[in-house]
Amino acid sequence: MKKSLLYILFLSILISSCKKEIIEGPTGAQGVQGTTGVTGNNGFNGADPRLFYQWRVIASNINSAYEIKCLLFNTDNSVYELQEYSIYGLRLINYGTQLITNTQLTLFGGERYNYTISNDTLRLSNTHRNVSAIRRNDIPTPNEWVVPVASLDSITLSKSYEGDIAFDGNYLWLTDPGENEFDKVNLFTRSLDTLQYSGLRNYYASVGYAQDYLWVSATNGTLHKVDRNTGQELQASPPMGQYINQGIAFDGKYLLCTGISSHSKYRDSLYTYDPISNTVISQWNIPYFTGIEYADGHLYACYENMIYKCTLSPLRAVKTYKILSARDAYDGITGIAYDGSNFWVKLKSSITDDNELHKVHLD
Question: What whole-number distance in Å separates Cα of residue 19 and Cα of residue 178?
């Protein structure tokens, strides 16, 4: 009996000892910490978290040809501002990081606004401007508003060309206002040759190509036909506007050119000129462009870093493109030419001050 009691006691002590070891085993690894929640109006760098959404502008007294259509606020305080010149369907897009606090924000152009949000309505106001927008989930994405296109090839030019470009089937021609010469670039060998121009020295920035001849603009608003082999001037057009600024295109029958008709940044004239009869066929008002080209039934026009694919009757953009590399590093497009498959645009770097040619494909 004693032996049995001693045996039971021994087993009890052994079991208690094992339980103690299990309870005091090594501590397990700490679990993953949960995500910190939004801390009310002090979250998102102090901004109201309800702001970070997509907004469609429904009312504004900002006086500009390019109207703000949509605002997209991101939680890193970056803002997309989608704009449109509504009459012509020309689109712009601005992007950048802006000052945003709990009650104020800054839009492009540096203007600061007070803002309030009530239900699904955003109101922006300062001493002289007011904007109202509604929260929507059907706002176009930035890449739908303006289609990004990548540079397929590029050429850095050896000097600063302030003028237009044109393609003659073999060479890309470049001009520089006030110089009595043209430079041509072989796109295969990248070699550059110079052609002396025998005409007046006071030509402006535009150059085009039509039916084996170059056409250049003068400061008095006339176009001049030039032999691309000899540089000899062969014909001059009647005056068109104050001057032909930055664009000559050929639609297969007529030359199209843009001329300054007023001092407004947003207003030019588009002239249709018949080189056979040497007469101006038509003129109508258009926005300010920095280069035009005609290809496959459409007018391609440039403004800042945008390329607009347009119908002509009426003039209206059916698609807007933006060169990817041109968002921050370039001052804008100052010439466009079509080589039969792709387009070449001339850009001036805001960092190096170099002029560059970029090849892009536009559908």
Answer: 98
Q: What is the pLDDT of residues 193-227, one digit of tens each?
A: 988 887 665 666 789 999 999 998 887 888 999 99
Give the H/E segment covering residue 280: strand 279-286
Where are the strands (E) in 74-218, listed by range? 78-85, 90-97, 104-106, 112-118, 121-125, 130-135, 147-149, 153-156, 165-167, 171-174, 181-186, 192-196, 203-210, 213-218
Residue 261, pLDDT score: 61
Q: Please identify which residue in the block is written with the tokens 């001092």.
A: 263
The answer to whether the CB of 319 falls within 8 A of the CB of 331 is no
Question: Given strand 355-360, what is the order of strands in its sheet?
Answer: 153-156, 355-360, 343-349, 330-338
- Residue whose tokens read 């670039």: 185
Q: What is the DSSP letter of 241?
A: S
CA distances (Å), origin 148, targets 51, 93, 144, 151, 319: 26, 11, 9, 10, 11
Residue 264, pLDDT above cutoff 50? yes
> What is the C-alpha to C-alpha distance for residues 97 and 77, in angstroms, rounded to an integer?
6
Helix or strand holding residue 1 (H, E)? none
Question: 227: closest CA among 205, 196, 254?
Answer: 196
Cβ burial, residue 216 (10 Å; 0-12/13-18/19+) = buried
pLDDT at res. 217: 86
Query: Residue 28 and residue 255: Cα distance in Å, rounded?
Result: 80
Give the whole-angstrom CA distance, residue 240 versus residue 222.
6
- Which two tokens mark 144? 């739908």
Measure the N-to-C terminal CA separation of the chain; round to a whole number of Å: 102
- Three-state DSSP state, 7: helix
- Torsions phi, psi of 222, nearest 5? -105, 155
Give CB contacts under 8 A, 24+ apart, made by 313-316: 315/88, 315/270, 315/284, 315/286, 316/88, 316/89
Q: Which residues contact 291 (CB under 8 A, 6 or more apart)?
A: 164, 165, 246, 247, 301, 302, 333, 334, 335, 336, 345, 346
Q: How many CA atoms lie within 13 A of 272 on its CB side?
A: 13
Tally of residues, the chain: 363
> What is residue 72's predicted lDDT score, i.e. its pLDDT?
95
